[in-house]
Amino acid sequence: MSEPAATIMPLVFDHVSQWYGDVVAVNDISCTVGAGITGLLGPNGAGKSTLLQLAAGLLTPANGRVLVYGEVPAQRPSIYARVALVPEREALPGMLTARAFVTARATMLGVRDIRTAVNRALALVELDTVADRRVDGFSKGMRQRAKLAAALVHEPTLVLLDEPFNGLDPRQRVHMMRLLEARAAAGTAVLLSSHILEEIEGVASRILVMLAGRLAATGDYRTLRRLMTDRPHTVRVRTSDDRTLAAALVQRLDVLGVEVAKDGVFVRTTDYAALARALAPAAQQHALTVYEIEAQDESLEHVFAYLVER
Asked: Could you report the per-residue pLDDT of 231-285, keeping only the tens digit for each?
């Protein structure tokens, strides 16, 4: 009996490699992308765009397999009806209006009710009020949204986005994040690459980090941070008596350093869990009021910078 469609993983990379001449763009990557939002991070030249093109079926891997819903796209062209790619590079026909551009894609994909689908897609990206303007008069952010509307017009279940936040103003970025979250909540698998790390941190439930064509790490950003045991955590704690707390923590914990500053006690330790367990007893023993606890290096920016440096 064949596996039910609902249980088939949307995207699988199975020991995938790709190179251009002597340049290795993707090197033996194996991972899966399921429903929800997965962030793809890495510096320029890491191989992110190539990986997305492989996922979209635009490239055939030199080695390994890419499976989309259990199928090799080149062998089952009908699978493309479930996939959408929003490339980083702008390749929009400037002489077309946004409506004509999205309509052309809907027609190519065989969408049944084209008018309804096009109107829905344009409204989703907030281009419905300017849909009849030519694309060559659009700003970069508007062009990005036009590409997204064309990608979503056929209601794909696997959406691939290469630097989708480029050119968007803050309000538009928030709108796109909410849009992607809504798609993910409905069961769509979203794989997006971005250098805007704080936005990936806020929207992606899982992260893939690529470096020099290889998959350097996977997981949510806190999981990645916890795995980096050779780099200490820095935590700031503000209490009613910071000097007393500092002395108490030194007695209770094997810490790498404790510094008392104007805005609290900065503790450096490789064992974040032990610090968390020790804080409450230390405060209670010395009758201290704890006002604030803040991890200083838990952001995705710190995680990514560390992985790149390593």
From this structure: 677 889 999 999 999 998 888 888 888 999 999 999 988 777 788 888 888 899 9
Please report the pLDDT score of residue 35 as a whole number. 94
DSSP H helical ranges for 168-236: 170-185, 197-203, 221-227
Q: Are 113 and 91 in contact (CB under 8 A)?
A: no
Domains 5-219 and 226-309 share a fold: no
pTM: 0.76
- Which of 66-70, 71-75, 305-309 bottoms out in mean pLDDT, i.e. has the lowest? 305-309
* Distance (Å, whole) CA 70 – CA 62: 19
Say how many Å lie between the first and final Cα of the chain, rounded: 46
Residue 5 predicted with pLDDT over 70:
no
Crossing angle of helices 272-285 and 242-252, in 10° steps, is 120
The answer to whether the beta carbons of residues 158 and 82 sit under 8 Å apart is yes
Q: Where in the chain are the domains?
A: 5-219, 226-309
Instruction: Domain 226-309: state its class.
Output: alpha beta
Side-chain half-sphere exposure of 34, counting CA atoms within 13 A: 8
* 51: region left, alpha or beta (phi > 0 left; psi from -120 to 50 alpha): alpha
Task: Tell me which CATH homologous superfamily contains domain 5-219.
Answer: P-loop containing nucleotide triphosphate hydrolases (3.40.50.300)
SS3 category, 39: strand
Q: Exposed, middle or buried, 28 (CB in 10 Å: 0-12/13-18/19+)?
A: middle
| Tally of CA atoms within 13 A in the half-sphere of 293 that contains its CB | 12
Query: Which one-letter amino acid corresponds to residue 128?
Result: D
